[in-house]
Every structure is written in C-alpha cells, then in structure tokens.
C-alpha cells in the first residue's frame, strides 16, 4: 500500500497576514504546498489528505479542483477549536485550535496506512519526499515505528523574524532521543538563540537537528494522540494559548519507550513564507529550480 501525504493547512497565517496556503510563489502561480504534492506524487505517495478550517473550505476546494485533483486522490478533514473529546470544552475566551497534533488527530479514521505529516507553507524539497517515501514503504503493518526529517538549524531560519522549531537530540544509532518545541528562535550576529518561557535567551549550536514538522507515522499514532490529548486537556485545557504540538507527544512516547523515531538526515536548506517579507526569496529559489529543470515551469501541464 502506498503511503499518504497529510498536509497541515488549517493555520490562518497570523504572522504572515493572510491565507498564505493559497499564495502563489511559482512561475505559473503555484503555491509552496503544490510543490510538496508534486514531489510526493513522484516519490510514490498514493493520496493527499488536507486538514483545513471550515471558514475557507469553499476557496480551498475550488483551488485544489482547479490544480491537481485529477492527479491524485484528495481528501479533506477539518480542525476547529471545539473539536474535542466528549466531556471537554474550550475556555470561553480561547480563539485558536489546539496545535499541530490536534490537527493530526482530525484524520483518525481517514488514514489507515503509513503517512507523512508536513506543513502547507514549508518547502521541503524533492529529496525529503524520496527519503520519507522509502522509509514509509518499509513499515507497513508495523506499529510505533516513526521517522522525522532532520534539518540543520542554520538551514531553517528566517531573515525576517523568529521561528518555531522542534529541537532534537539524536543518538549514535540515528534515532531521536528527545525533542522540545522552541517557539521563539532567532539568528543573531553572535549565533543562534532561543527564548524560553521566562524570556531568557539560550544558545543553539549550528548543526543541531530540528523538525520542520515533517514526520512519518504508522496509524497507531492516532490512538496515542487521542489518549494523550485528554491528559493534555486535563492539565492545560483552560489555558488560552496552550498547544498540543507533535514534538510534545513524540517526546513523551520516546521517554516512555513506546516508540522509536528514525531521523532521516538531510542537509537540504528549508525555506518558507513565515512572513510576507520571505516571499521574494522563495520565488527566487523556485525560479532557479525551474531553470535547473528540477521542476517544470507549470507543474500540472
């Protein structure tokens, strides 16, 4: 069975200032996520599942149908603030859903094969999907055997502001031994630093592997997510901005010895549109890829 690509596209792009998932960066108006879909199809993925919000459902469906719905099977699921286990409710003043792992949980019952999770607004590159597809095609029928695309921290930063990254530790066998979500990382003249919850800055060494939310999972991950989400809500459900991140759960599963996570090392540079000011650089890089015949000028013709 071919693996599935699961695209996290529910974010409204608050820092970017618009619906960046549908913002064209390619020579024929292609979005970043279209390059991911294109790379995934040629790497052997069998279908694409998107998680979005109901508020832009019509625009999103129209976009997909006009681009690549005839190239692969497309399924849509939804993430909303109120989509919680029975007996739970959000705090009255909370506005945003519950983060990336809550988004993943929305696909339970829809995905029953090994799958790769990615962000809609990150450009991962052809090699990334080839590495992930090869891994996922070896774990069919297994449980608790996961993977993470590991990018070097210095290749994942924006020149226009802070970024959030899952900062990992890798053991001698190439497996993830721990990962922590750092929500405020910046590059300074003296090096790379992250700011903790108390506002203090700490150094991050160059070469440190980080997650760009490109994960490979077997379907049992949904059961873990459902169980641990309830525990998360019991502890932090009344907070207005708490988020159930993928690295939070992955780290828990590693610590408890329940799952292994193979780090698929890549030296490829990441790029994306965290901020509007990032867009010209992204367009320039994609234009260069087209010039080098890595991608056609129009992806879908």
Tally of extended strands? 13
Say what the CATH topology is. Answer: Spore Coat Polysaccharide Biosynthesis Protein SpsA, Chain A
CATH homologous superfamily label = Spore Coat Polysaccharide Biosynthesis Protein SpsA, Chain A
Main beta-sheet annotation: 11 strands, mixed
User: What form results from the Cα inertia axes?
Assistant: globular
What does this structure look like?
The protein has helices at 32-42, 57-67, 100-105, 126-136, 220-236, 246-255, 279-291, and strands at 4-8, 47-52, 73-78, 115-119, 122-123, 145-152, 163-170, 176-188, 191-195, 201-204, 209-217, 260-265, 271-272. It has 301 residues and is α/β, with parallel strands linked by helices. The protein has a single domain (4-149, 210-258, 271-291), classed as Spore Coat Polysaccharide Biosynthesis Protein SpsA, Chain A (Alpha-Beta Complex), CATH 3.90.550. Strands 1, 2, 3, 4, 6, 7, 8, 9, 10, 11 and 12 form an 11-stranded mixed sheet that branches. Helix 1 (32-42) crosses helix 4. It starts with a strand and ends in a 10-residue tail after the last helix.
Secondary structure blueprint with pairings:
Elements: E1 4-8, H1 32-42, E2 47-52, H2 57-67, E3 73-78, H3 100-105, E4 115-119, E5 122-123, H4 126-136, E6 145-152, E7 163-170, E8 176-188, E9 191-195, E10 201-204, E11 209-217, H5 220-236, H6 246-255, E12 260-265, E13 271-272, H7 279-291
Parallel strand pairs: 1-2, 1-4, 2-3, 6-12
Antiparallel strand pairs: 4-11, 5-13, 6-11, 7-8, 7-11, 8-9, 9-10
Helix pairs in contact: 1-4
């Amino acid at each position: 069975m071919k693996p599935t690509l699961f695209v996290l596209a529910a974010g409204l792009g608050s820092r970017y200032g618009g619906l960046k998932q549908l913002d064209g960066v390619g020579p024929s108006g292609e979005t970043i996520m279209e390059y991911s879909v294109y790379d995934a199809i040629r790497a052997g993925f069998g279908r694409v599942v998107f998680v979005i919000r109901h508020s832009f459902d019509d625009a999103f469906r129209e976009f997909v149908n006009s681009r690549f719905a005839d190239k692969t099977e497309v399924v849509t699921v939804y993430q909303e603030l109120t989509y919680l286990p029975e007996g739970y409710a959000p705090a009255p003043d909370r506005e945003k859903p519950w983060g990336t792992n809550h988004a993943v949980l929305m696909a339970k019952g829809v995905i029953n094969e090994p799958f790769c999770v990615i962000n809609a607004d990150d450009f991962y590159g052809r090699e990334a999907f080839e590495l992930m597809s090869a891994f996922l095609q070896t774990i069919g029928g297994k449980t608790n055997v996961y993977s993470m695309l590991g990018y070097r921290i210095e290749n994942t930063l924006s020149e226009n502001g802070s970024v959030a990254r899952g900062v990992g530790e890798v053991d001698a066998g190439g497996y993830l031994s721990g990962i922590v979500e750092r929500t405020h990382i910046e590059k300074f003249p003296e090096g790379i630093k992250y700011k903790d919850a108390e506002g203090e800055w700490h150094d991050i060494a160059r070469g440190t592997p980080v997650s760009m939310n490109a994960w490979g999972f077997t379907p049992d991950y949904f059961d873990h997510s459902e169980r641990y989400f309830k525990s998360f809500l019991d502890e932090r459900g009344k907070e207005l901005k708490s988020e159930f991140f993928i690295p939070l759960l992955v780290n828990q599963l590693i610590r408890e010895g329940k799952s292994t996570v193979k780090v698929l090392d890549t030296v490829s540079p990441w790029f994306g549109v965290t901020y509007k000011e990032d867009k010209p650089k992204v367009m320039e890089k994609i234009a260069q890829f087209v010039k080098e015949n890595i991608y056609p000028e129009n992806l879908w013709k």
